[in-house]
Amino acid sequence: MKVLFRDDKKGNIKLLIQTMDDLWHLYNLIEEGDLVVATTFRRDDKLTDKLRPERMDKRRVRLGIRVEKLEFHDFSDRLRIRGTIETGSEEIGSYHTFNVTLRDNIGIVKNWKDSQLRRIEDAVASTLQPLITFVSMDDESALLAQMHQYAIREIATIRGPGSGKQFKSPATKEDYFSEILNMIKSLEQTGILIVVGPGFTRKDFFDYGKRKSAETFEKCYTIVTGSAGMAGIQEALKRGMGEQALLDSNMAMETRLVEEVLSEISKEGAYAYGEEEVSKAIDMGAIETLLVTEDSVRDERREALMKRAESAKGKVVIVSSRHEAGKKLLSLGGLAALLRYKIQH
Q: Are strands 271-273 and 287-293 parallel, antiparallel or unpaired?
C-alpha cells in the first residue's frame, strides 16, 4: 500500500492498492457511512420517446459514494464497495458499486480512528515484506499455499504416487516432484519458498528442485515438521521455525503471541482476557502486549481500551480473525493480553 495524498484536517486519505493484503486492509478500514472516491465505469441511460431507455456505452468517471456495504472476495482478488453516489455525477442518490482491485487508487474521507491510521502505517511497511510460498508435503500429498497477512491461501493439493484409486496420481516419485515443481513455476509470484514436512520426501524434493530449477529454488528453505498439509504449516508458524522472513511475517508474529497467551492461561501465568480483566490490567500498568481481533476494532469500547493500553506503554497488535491464531483469539472474546506480571483473576 502507498499513501498518495493525506489531508488530516479534512480526513481525506488517498491510497494505492499494491497487494492482495491491501484489499484486506481496506475492508477493515472502510466503514458504513464513509465517503469513498474511486475511478470507475458507469453507463448512462439516454431517455427517448421509446418505452425503454437506450443503453449507452460505459464511460470512465471519478465518483464518490457514501458506503452502505462491503464485500471482500479473496478468491477473486477484489473488494466490492456499494453505496449511493454523492459526487462526480448528476445521478446523486443512485446506487453504484466499486470493484476495487490491484493497482487501483482510492480516496477515503472519514473521521479516522488512531487504530485505523496505525493500520495504514503497518500496511505501508508490510508491502516490503516478501511473499512466502509453502510446499507442505509427505510421500502421499503436497499442499501448495501462500501466506498473506490475513490468512494462508491454499492454491492446490498434488497427490503422491499410489495415493488411492479415487485420485489421479503420478506413477512415480519423479513424476510427483515434477508436478509440484510445474505448479510452483505456474505461480505469478513465488517470493520465498519454504518446504515443510516429515520424513525424507521433503528433503528429496528440495534436492530435486535445486537440480531441476536452480532459479526457482534460489530462495528456498526446508523445515522439518511432524505433519504435512496445513498442520505442518501451522506447526512451523507456532514454533517460529525457518528463514528470517517467516519469523518476521505478521502472521507468524500473531500466531506466536496468541500461542503465548494460551500457554500463560494453561499455567495460570501473566495473562488477561475479556474487557473486564484487560481493563483492570491496564489500570494496574501490567499490559505488555494487547491482542485485538480486527473484527472487534470497530467497537468503541475496544478502541478506548487500545488507547488506554498504549498510554500505559503497552503494545497493541491487531490480529486477523481469518487464520487459525485469530480464531483462537476470537474464542477468548477477541481480546487478550500478555502481562508484565501476574495479576489476581
A: unpaired
Q: Between the CA atoms of 184, 188, 191 and 192, what dihedral angle is there, to the nearest 10 degrees? A: -10
User: Whose CA is closest to 143, among 133, 135, 132, 151?
Assistant: 135
| Nearest CA-CA partner of 133 in 192, 181, 177 | 192
CA dist 39 and 208 (Å) reads 47
- The 8-class DSSP code of residue 129 comes to S
Of residues 65, 58, 60, the one with CA closest to residue 97: 65
Q: Which among 143, 146, 125, 131 has a CA at the least distance from the CA of 75? A: 146
Give pLDDT tens digits for 205-259.
Answer: 999 999 999 999 998 989 999 999 999 999 988 876 655 666 667 888 888 999 9
Q: Which residue stretches of 173-331 are H helix?
A: 173-185, 201-212, 229-239, 244-248, 250-266, 275-283, 300-311, 324-330
Segment 108-130 shows an average pLDDT of 88
54 burial class (0-12, 13-18, 19+ CB within 10 angstroms)?
Answer: exposed
**What is the 3-class SS of 218-245, one letter each residue?**
CCEEEEECCCCHHHHHHHHHHHCCCCHH
pTM, to two decimals: 0.74
Helix (H) or strand (E) holding 126: helix 114-126
Q: How far is CA 89 from CA 56, 93, 193, 308, in A?
A: 15, 10, 47, 43
Domains of the chain in start order, with CATH, are 2-111 (2.30.30.870), 132-248 (3.30.420.60), 257-339 (3.30.1330.30)
Q: Are 81 and 108 in contact (CB under 8 A)?
A: no
Q: Is the pLDDT of residue 105 over 80?
A: yes
